[in-house]
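Structure tokens please, single chain.
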Amino acid sequence: MNVVIVDTGVANISSVKFAFERLSITPLVSSNSEVIKQADRVVLPGVGSAPYAMKLLRQKKLVSVLKLLKQPVLGICLGMQLLYETLDEGGLHVEGLGLLKGKVTLLNTKKNPSPHMGWNKLSFNKSDDFLNGITEGSYVYFVHSYAAAITNYTLAKTSYGTDFSSIVKKNNIYGCQFHPERSSKVGATILENFMKIKE
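Here you go.
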């Protein structure tokens, strides 16, 4: 099966690539639109700044390509946030890919330090094959300051001052606010489930 990791220019590609290689899958890293279109699975990773990430996607002419994909797509961390219509970051109102309705905003951590960094647990919002083999309350690894609210897309939520969406799904679009590639066995199971999705 052909897995393509989109070279967004704002991601630790090597760690995501290595996570798939540990599952005996050799992904291709590319920003070529034709390569991405022909993939069986597409992964959109990302860390850092949303405005810069969207700028790079536009420069690489990938926005329209990503919007039209019919195969399973997985957004990771910032990559998940980019799936939404808008992102409010640093006083800027950034237009995302619009694959998911809603917006990403600064996480209200209340008395907790920001950013939200470290291990935290998943609380299931609804059942789905994407969660197969994962136990309620499993811990995964987060590094983020912004988050999406709980909606009908939310498969799992996490609490850090405020509840937020940690796993989302809409049709062929999936997102993890945490880093599966840094989340040990649970993260590996998520990636395995992504590979098993029936189109």
